[in-house]
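stage 2 :: seqdesign
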């Protein structure tokens, strides 16, 4: 049992206020919530919307059409009127009369009640809550707790508005029946928050960035956690400075992270190569969005895999993680930081706008500070050499301050860190750095398989397509098809042998690569690594919008 709600209007009309309010109270009721956003890059104007999907079962993707559309602007009516399900209710914040549309002038009602038109959002929330058949007292209790620090008058006015909305919608009560409470978790997170929390609990002590949507969300959350977790947060003058700052911090032994998006990462590439030569454990979170260039700055994409894999002049080892869920975003951020320090190599976390902004109620994450092992020598001896050659390529890493002299250099260097142009030394130290690749490969996280082992259809995906593909598999199986999913949450390095043995032996299986780009980058990468696929199909989306489970299932059914 599920309901999809779409609240649409212009930037500045309070879509997020209504959306966040409803996400919070509905999760407290015990129903499963999955919320997504679609917004333009304009400060004001342009059509934006906030989707909330609720159910008595766990949800993994957004919706295609709405059961309840709340239109706060004429553009919302013009563009979204056709994107509703059969028997949907449409509410319009206007006095204008339109066939099959319920006009409710929320702003005028708020002005009449409190003198503050801005409280139209709370009236709309009360109307929505009542239409879903829920007791308005739950919304009022939530407002009481949420606004407790804003003063008695603000609390009272909001509760008055919520109750007015409920009374206004009395004849529509339960018209679109919301799901019954299902003991769903009450804790709500979004993707930007879970990456920040993973970094903070892993012991990151320095975070820097030049703000760039959608990567800024994680940086903002880290700033909010700065006091609690003793993190120094610095807004750099540009992305070049940001990556160089974390190189300096990690040289000093400080776990550090920077956040950016594709365009910003392009500027960081020289610094990434610097970290490769100096063997510094830097961590970079890239929140993908459509390009080339500025592209669609507030939309989503999965188009930077190849760029991140090959970024940097010269060759050096790296690891790339691509979370598919909020829990994975938390866990893999911690893993990325640990991997960087274990192997003294750059690691990357590939997010995207969809996963950064998704809100979902999940089992509460651990907020306890539990630092990773920095794998450092606190007090070096006089004979210390930073780049001594070892079998696995990982040299003992000291930080400045002991008896030893910790020398790092961007040029090729010898064991003691000083520049060399000895060509035999060049071979020795390049081999030393690349030897880490074997350890990284041995610890790589293999793909997750979901569905029946003998499925006729296999959806292969990575990163944020996890949820939509999982839902598509469930939809296909419930309709009589036989489908499964193979999801990659680490996209480099990849151990190819288990893939060939366990998932791609049966040539009769129909294989679909589901990716948010135009060139099927994961499919291309697997083929480059020796996966011989006689035949496969692609389901690609690159209009800046995320996949939904319904869309993927329908494209397969049509295909």
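stage 2 :: out
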């Amino acid at each position: 049992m599920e309901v999809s709600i779409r609240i649409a209007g212009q930037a500045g009309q309070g879509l997020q206020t209504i959306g966040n309010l409803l996400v919070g109270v509905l999760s407290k009721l015990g129903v499963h919530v999955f919320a997504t956003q679609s917004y333009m890059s304009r400060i004001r104007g342009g059509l934006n919307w906030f989707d909330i999907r609720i159910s008595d079962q766990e949800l993994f993707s957004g919706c295609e059409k709405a059961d309840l559309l709340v239109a706060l602007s004429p553009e919302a009516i013009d563009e979204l009127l056709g994107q509703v399900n059969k028997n949907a209710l449409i509410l319009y914040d206007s006095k204008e009369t339109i066939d099959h549309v319920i006009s409710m002038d929320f702003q005028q009602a708020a002005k009449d009640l409190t003198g503050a038109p801005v409280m139209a959002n709370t009236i709309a929330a009360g109307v929505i809550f009542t239409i879903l058949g829920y007791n308005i007292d739950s919304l009022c209790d939530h407002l009481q707790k949420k606004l407790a620090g804003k003063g008695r008058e603000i609390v009272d006015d909001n509760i008055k508005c919520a109750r007015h909305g409920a009374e206004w919608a009395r004849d529509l009560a339960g018209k679109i029946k919301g799901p019954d409470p299902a003991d769903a978790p009450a804790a709500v997170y979004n993707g930007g928050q879970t990456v920040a929390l993973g970094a903070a609990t892993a012991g990151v002590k320095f975070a820097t960035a030049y703000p760039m949507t959608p990567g800024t969300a994680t940086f903002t959350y880290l700033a909010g956690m700065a006091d609690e977790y003793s993190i120094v947060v610095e807004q750099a003058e540009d992305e070049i400075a940001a990556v160089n700052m974390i190189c300096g911090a990690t040289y000093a032994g400080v776990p550090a992270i920077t956040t950016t998006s594709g365009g910003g990462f392009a500027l960081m590439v020289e610094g990434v190569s610097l970290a490769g030569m100096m063997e510094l454990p830097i961590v970079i979170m890239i929140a993908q969005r459509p390009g080339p260039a500025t592209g669609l700055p507030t939309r989503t994409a999965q188009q930077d895999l190849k760029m991140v894999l090959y970024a940097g002049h010269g060759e050096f080892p790296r690891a790339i993680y691509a979370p598919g869920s909020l829990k994975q975003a938390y866990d893999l951020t911690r893993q990325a930081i640990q991997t960087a320090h274990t192997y003294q190599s750059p690691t990357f976390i590939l997010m995207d706008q969809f996963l950064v902004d998704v809100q979902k109620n999940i089992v509460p994450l651990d907020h306890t500070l539990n630092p990773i092992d920095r794998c450092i020598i606190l007090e070096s001896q006089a004979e210390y050499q930073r780049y001594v050659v070892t079998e696995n390529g990982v040299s003992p890493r000291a930080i400045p301050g002991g008896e030893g002299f910790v020398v790092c250099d961007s040029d090729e260097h010898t064991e003691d860190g000083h520049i060399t142009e000895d060509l035999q030394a060049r071979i020795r130290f390049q081999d030393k750095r690349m030897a880490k690749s074997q350890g990284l490969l041995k610890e790589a996280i293999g793909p997750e398989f979901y569905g029946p082992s003998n499925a006729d259809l296999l959806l292969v995906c990575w990163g944020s397509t996890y949820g939509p593909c999982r839902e598509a598999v469930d939809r296909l199986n419930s309709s009589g098809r036989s489908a499964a999913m193979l999801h990659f949450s680490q996209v480099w390095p990849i151990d190819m042998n288990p893939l060939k043995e366990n998932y791609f032996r049966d040539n009769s299986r129909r294989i679909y690569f589901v990716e948010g780009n135009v060139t099927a980058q994961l499919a291309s990468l697997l083929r480059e690594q020796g996966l011989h696929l006689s035949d496969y199909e692609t389901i690609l989306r690159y209009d800046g919008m995320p996949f939904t489970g319904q869309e993927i299932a329908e494209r397969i059914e049509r295909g």
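stage 3 :: structure notes
- The first strand starts at residue 2 and ends at 11.
- The mean pLDDT is 95.
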